[in-house]
Amino acid sequence: MPTSSSTIPGIPRRQASAHCLAAILCVVVLAACAGCGSVGGRQPVRTEIQPFSPAEAELWDVARSAEYTFRIGDVFDISFKYDKELDQKDVQVLPDGRMSISSFENVYVVGLTVSQVDSLITAAFAKDYIAPDLTIIMQEFGKSAVYVLGSVNKPGEYDLPEFRGGVLQAVAAAGGFDRTASSSEVLLIRATPEGFLYRHFDLSHLEKQGLPSAEALDLRPYDIIYVPRSPVGDLAAFSEQVLGSVLRFSDLFWDVYAISNLDKINSILR
User: Fold this and answer.
1) How far is CA 182 from each of CA 52, 138, 177, rounded to the nearest angstrom?
2) Which of 63, 105, 209, 264 is the right S-S partner for 253, CB 3.0 to 4.6 Å?
3) Is 0.70 topped by the overall pTM?
4) Is the pLDDT score of 261 beyond 80?
């Protein structure tokens, strides 16, 4: 008997109808997903690189040879060249800015360079040992923060662990958008060797589209989140006039370099 045009050969009529319905649903879902990337034609995430200005490039180069200063939460080892029994492991800078090791207790080190702390420890051990030869080896950097600036209620520097959820949580930590905020033009700014990486986020319709993408969750130490009052056009001018007025690029660049080059930092510090 010839096969009916409404059935699929070898498949019962009801099962064939189910297959057809499933195929239609797949087409509908795919079409809907194709439109999820934007609402009303908007692109929720846009990424671009703004090269450093000559002055910024010079500061970035200087950061590679700058000497690190201790901060609260830093962890380091002290390695003695000739007497390994004196080695100190996981020495931490405490919340009061002090550190304590055997023969050398409650010494304030925040703001001192590694060379200065090295000299202090060497002098302390020289009271009991002849010509102690030691090396300070950085293991962890205690301060891990991001900046939330612009049209938020409490702009400032915030500890990164407080909002591992990303850009939106960082804005919430800073008190949320103020009345002048352009929430459709939120910027995430990151210093990289190639220049400032800018990501533009549209956070104006979260109730419809949720977070724009996984990029919104990708916060790293010393990222800058900036909420403008109006769209930022000239990124070079923005970097120099706005960011440069509220941040010390020399400090920012060194922090970024130190965090991303922990394995190399000891040779730089010495």
Assistant:
1) 25, 41, 8
2) 63
3) no
4) no
Tens digits of residue pLDDT in 72-89: 889 999 999 988 989 999
Residue 54 near residue 60, CB atoms below 8 Å: no
- Using a pLDDT cut of 70, give the percent of the chain over it: 72
**Quick one: average pLDDT of 60-72?**
81
Cα–Cα distance for residue pair 206/247, rounded to 1 Å: 30
Q: Is the dihedral of CA 152, 154, 160, 162 positive or negative?
A: negative
Alpha helices, DSSP H, located in the chain = 13-34, 54-63, 114-125, 167-173, 206-209, 235-238, 244-246, 249-260, 265-269
pLDDT of residue 119: 92
Contact 197, 47 (CB under 8 A): yes
Contact criterion met (CB below 8 Å) for 71 and 93: yes
Q: What is the CATH topology of the domain spanning 45-64+144-265?
A: Outer membrane lipoprotein wza fold like (3.10.560)
Q: Collect all residues with Cβ–Cβ distance below 8 Å to 74 and sequence separation of at least 6.
A: 92, 93, 138, 140, 141, 142, 143
pLDDT in tens, 199-244: 988 888 765 555 556 666 778 888 899 999 877 877 877 887 778 7
Domain covering 75-140 assigned CATH 3.30.1950.10 in the classification:
yes
With vertex at residue 235, the alpha carbon angle to CA 229 and CA 190, rounded to the nearest 5 degrees, is 95
